[in-house]
Specification:
four-stranded mixed β-sheet, Helix Hairpins, two-stranded antiparallel ribbon, Four Helix Bundle (Hemerythrin (Met), subunit A), 3 domains, 63% helix, 6 strands, single chain
Length: 488
C-alpha cells in the first residue's frame, strides 16, 4: 500500500484540498454501492460521509480511520455495516429527516446512526417513540436481571441483620426464589379465600346466633376463623414492612394500602366494641362496627398480589383511561338525550312511569347498558321506538372502545412474557460469557505449557485448538454447577 504520493491516489489541488462540492465518491456498504456528491454531503459536515471527502488529502491513515477498506482506483470506500439501515440513514442528506424501515431493530439502528455520526434529532418523531419503547424494555430487562443477581449474590460486608432482612423479603415477596417461599404464597392465597368465604357465610341468618339483647351476630366459630385470618395478614404485613428496603415506598404502594384496609377494620371494630360503649351509645357503636365490617371486602383485592392476570388487567385499565373516558362520554351523552326524549314522549300517556327527566336517567342507564330491569318502561309507540334506538346506540357505544382495551391487555401480557424470557436469556448469556472467560484463561495456560515443553514426550504432537479449550469444562459438567444454574 502506497501513501499519499501514490499515483493512484485522488488528485488534489495545489493547496492540498479537493473541490469538495464537485467531488464524487462511491461508498460500498455491505455489498451495496452508492454514489454521493460533495454538495449533498457537506450539508452535514460532522457526519462520517462528509468526513470522507475531506480525508482524501490526509493519506491512508486518515482514510482507514473512517472506513474498513478503500480502493484508490475506483475511489470506492468499503464499510462492513448494515446496508438496509444505511439506506434509511442517507435520507438525511436528501430530505433532512430519517425514518426507520419496518423490521429493523431500533437499538441497532441507533448504533448505526452513531457510527455514521448522524444526530438522533433527525430521526422522525414516530421512530423516536419506537426507540424509546425499546429503551424502556431494555431498562426493564436490566432491572429484572439486576434483581435476580442481587437475590443470588451475598455481600459479605453486610451485617447479619441486613442479610436477615433480605432473606425475609425474598421469602415473602418472591415465591419463585425457593420451595418454602412458594408454600407461604399458597398459604397466603388460601387465607384470603377462607377469609372471604367466612365473610359471606357469616351473613346467612341460619348460621348466626342471638346475643343476650336479641341482636343477631356471627357464629363464634366463624368469628374465630376470621380472627386467625386477620392474625396471619397482620403478621405477614409486619414482616414485610420490617424487611422492606424502602419503608416509605412500601407504605405508599397500592397493594400495601389494600392490605392495611383489609386489616384495619377488624382492630377498629374490636376497639369500638370494648371501649366505644363507654364513650357513646351502644346503638351508635353497633352501627359503626357494621360499617367497618363491610370494609372487609377490600381483602379480595389481595388476590391481585398472587395473580399476574389481575395485575395485567389493572395495568391494561390504567393504560386505557382515554378509551374508558370516551366510553363514559358516549354513554353520558346518550343517557341525557334519550332520557329527555323518553320523558317528553311519555307525558301523553295517563299511566306514565316517567315522572321527571332525572328519574328517566335510571331508565336510560339500564336500557343503554342492555340490563333492562323492567321497573320503568315506555308505554307509547314513540317511547318504545326511542327505547329501541337507545339500546342499539348503547351497544355501539360500548363496543367501540372495547377493542383498544383488549389490545392493551394482550400487548402488556405478551410484553411481560417476552421480558421474562429475555431476562432469563440474558442470565444464560452472562453465564456463557463467564464460562468462555474461564476457558480463555485455560487456553492461555495450555499454550504457555506448549511453549515451555512441559507436557512430556507427546508435546510435539499436541495441537491446541478451540475444542481443546472446552474439554476440561465438559468433563466437569456433571460435577460443577454455577450459581445461576443451581437457582433455576
Amino acid at each position: 500500500i502506497k501513501m499519499a504520493g501514490d499515483s493512484r491516489f485522488p488528485d488534489v489541488d495545489a493547496d492540498g484540498s479537493e473541490k469538495n462540492d464537485e467531488t464524487e465518491i462511491v461508498v460500498n456498504v455491505g455489498g451495496v454501492r452508492q454514489v454521493f456528491y460533495g454538495d449533498h454531503l457537506n450539508q452535514y459536515p460532522e457526519t462520517r460521509l462528509a468526513e470522507l471527502i475531506n480525508c482524501l488529502s490526509g493519506g491512508y491513515d486518515s482514510i482507514f480511520s473512517l472506513c474498513d477498506d478503500y480502493d484508490p482506483g475506483k475511489r470506492e470506500f468499503y464499510f462492513d455495516r448494515d446496508p438496509d439501515a444505511f439506506k434509511c440513514i442517507i435520507d438525511v442528506y436528501y430530505f433532512g429527516e430519517i425514518h426507520m424501515k419496518k423490521g429493523i431493530c431500533p437499538i441497532c439502528f441507533k448504533n448505526e446512526m452513531e457510527f455514521w455520526k448522524v444526530d438522533l434529532k433527525f430521526l422522525d418523531d414516530c421512530c423516536k417513540t419506537h426507540l424509546s419503547e425499546k429503551k424502556e424494555e431494555l431498562e426493564e430487562i436490566a432491572r429484572r436481571v439486576q434483581l435476580i443477581l442481587d437475590d443470588l449474590g451475598v455481600d459479605a460486608s453486610e451485617s447479619r441483620w441486613k442479610r436477615c432482612q433480605k432473606y425475609i423479603w425474598k421469602f415473602l415477596e418472591k415465591p419463585e426464589s425457593s420451595y418454602p417461599a412458594r408454600v407461604i404464597a399458597v398459604l397466603s392465597f388460601l387465607f384470603i379465600l377462607i377469609s372471604s368465604v367466612v365473610m359471606c357465610v357469616g351473613t346467612i341468618p341460619d348460621l348466626q346466633v342471638v346475643d343476650a339483647e336479641g341482636n343477631r351476630m356471627e357464629h363464634p366459630t366463624l368469628d374465630s376463623i376470621e380472627t386467625a385470618c386477620i392474625g396471619w395478614f397482620t403478621m405477614e404485613y409486619v414482616l414485610r414492612l420490617i424487611s422492606s428496603p424502602n419503608k416509605l415506598h412500601f407504605a405508599l404502594s397500592f397493594m400495601n394500602i389494600v392490605d392495611v384496609l383489609a386489616i384495619l377494620p377488624f382492630y377498629v371494630s374490636l376497639t369500638l366494641t370494648h371501649l366505644g360503649a363507654k364513650l357513646m351509645e351502644l346503638s351508635n357503636v353497633q352501627q359503626a362496627v357494621q360499617a367497618l365490617r363491610i370494609m372487609r371486602i377490600a381483602r379480595i383485592f389481595k388476590l391481585a398480589r398472587h395473580s399476574s392476570g389481575l395485575q395485567t388487567l389493572t395495568y391494561a385499565l390504567k393504560r386505557s383511561f382515554k378509551e374508558l373516558g370516551l366510553l363514559l362520554m358516549y354513554l353520558a351523552v346518550g343517557i341525557f338525550v334519550f332520557s329527555a326524549l323518553g320523558y317528553t314522549m311519555e307525558q301523553s300517556h295517563p299511566e306514565t312511569l316517567f315522572k321527571s327527566i332525572p328519574q328517566s336517567f335510571w331508565w336510560a342507564i339500564i336500557t343503554m347498558t342492555t340490563v333492562g330491569y323492567g321497573d320503568i318502561y315506555p308505554k307509547t309507540t314513540l317511547g318504545k321506538l326511542n327505547a329501541a334506538i337507545s339500546f342499539l346506540c348503547g351497544v355501539i357505544a360500548i363496543a367501540l372502545p372495547i377493542h383498544p382495551i383488549i389490545n392493551n391487555f394482550v400487548r402488556y401480557y405478551n410484553k411481560q412474557r417476552v421480558l421474562e424470557t429475555a431476562a432469563k436469556h440474558e442470565l444464560e448469556l452472562m453465564e456463557l460469557n463467564s464460562a468462555e472467560g474461564k476457558a480463555a484463561s485455560s487456553k492461555s495456560e495450555l499454550e504457555d505449557l506448549v511453549r515451555e515443553g512441559k507436557e512430556g514426550p507427546y508435546s510435539s504432537r499436541l495441537k491446541v485448538s478451540h475444542s481443546d479449550t472446552f474439554i476440561h469444562l465438559l468433563s466437569e459438567e456433571k460435577h460443577y454447577r454455577t450459581r445461576l444454574q443451581s437457582c433455576k
